[in-house]
Amino acid sequence: MTSNTAAAPASPPAPATGPAPGSPPADGPRPAAASAVRSPVASPVRVLVALAQLAALGVVGPVVFTVLITLLSTGIGTAVVLGIGLLLLIGFVYALWAVAWLEAARIDGLYHVGVPAPALRRRPRPGFGGVLLMFWRQAIDPGVWRGIANFAIATALGLVTILLVAVLVSGIALTLSPLLAGEGVSRLWGWDLELPATWAFVVGPVMVALSAAALIGVAILHGVLSRLIMVPSREAQLAAQARQSAEQRAGAVRAADVERTRIERDLHDGVQPRLVSVGMTLGLARQKIDDDPAAATALIEEAHTSTKAAITELRQLARGIHASVLDDRGLDAALSALAARSHVPVQLDVRIEGRCERSAEAAVYFAIAESLTNAAKHSRASAVRVVVRRRDDGTLWTRVEDDGIGGARILPGGGLDGISNRIVGAGGTYRLDSPHGGPTALEVSVPCAF
């Protein structure tokens, strides 16, 4: 683990708060489950754990649904009273998500079938309309409702499980009752029914056998239904993977097109006019070299200065296409060099272990470089803070935040558009938060290997 900090005279800006506007990938197709789907084997331990969970859900489930129904009905009834109902409806939506998330985690932990957990939606665009759209998409998320449906079925099976456990215990008690009742009358435990003691040895074991078989059947039925409801089908997984691959290809193509346009613009507007000027200056120097050697020498000196400036611009252009230090010394060193060249003071905090895939490091490097360029050109920022981490889930995460005037938007062909295209092309996600008045924060997450 390494930590590198560039000089930053100003203190780091305060972190942005609230949901970020403009995060299309968060609402796009999510990757299918990473682990292979396996059939839930009815092993004794798994059956017992499933029955224990179902019995618990038989007790907790009705309470949960009572709370959900209360939130929904009260929220609808008080929606026009000072907005209290809207808060209750928002609580209802996120309570649904929490139940679905816990149900996905329970099923995946019990059967190891690769259940994708429902994700929290993000605000697709700024403003109150974006907030409403975010809540609406969260409310109609198919993954959430699959989890709620499975939770409802599991609750019903839990109630059946509790009943069957009562029958099982009654059967055991009836089987053992003659040992206490002798030749008298045995009372069926929990039931208003009496049997002769001689019949207890017959009815009790039958009740135990039937209830135990029914409990095993309930556990197996729970596993089958959970797999059918919660686990995406093979066709759905392939369709999601195809959509993700198509988005990555489209993002890579757009990123390449934006990069090509930028290179052409920089060559046409920067290096080319300078080289033309150098040629004209040398032509004038050649005409004056015999008649006015001093003027010719001054012109040659001017051409030499312009040539060095053109070489510097070409180096910067090449560095923007590919940073050789990124391959040689890694992302930490490349970002240190980038921060040292920045016109705005940068506080750099890089804590990563090992190396990621070259395309992932290049995508993160490009996003940070473009963000620093935007901060210097447009945001009027006095300080920029860059944080890079390698997370436990195998993703490379970075956050670039400046204390500028904000108002950054993704425009076709712009620098932020190039960042979004490159990140999507690398299979990652991005999040931009730039309210008017600042600060501007860009978060990027890219898988280290894919």
TrEMBL record:
Protein name as catalogued: histidine kinase
Claim: Kinase is one of the keywords in the record: yes
Assigned EC number: 2.7.13.3
Domain Putative sensor: start-end pairs: 59-227
Keyword Glycoprotein in record: no
EC class: transferase
Lineage summary: Bacteria, Bacillati, Actinomycetota, Actinomycetes, Micrococcales
Segments forming domain Signal transduction histidine kinase subgroup 3 dimerisation and phosphoacceptor: 259-324
Pro residues biased stretches: 10-28
Transmembrane feature ranges: 47-73, 79-102, 151-177, 197-225
Keywords: ATP-binding, Kinase, Membrane, Nucleotide-binding, Phosphoprotein, Transferase, Transmembrane, Transmembrane helix, Two-component regulatory system
Signal peptide (UniProt feature, chain positions): none
Source organism (scientific name): Microbacterium wangchenii
Stretch list, region Disordered: 1-34
UniProt GO molecular function: kinase activity
Annotated InterPro entries: HATPase_C_sf, Put_sensor_dom, Sensor_HK_TwoCompSys, Sig_transdc_His_kin_sub3_dim/P
Reaction it catalyzes: ATP + protein L-histidine = ADP + protein N-phospho-L-histidine
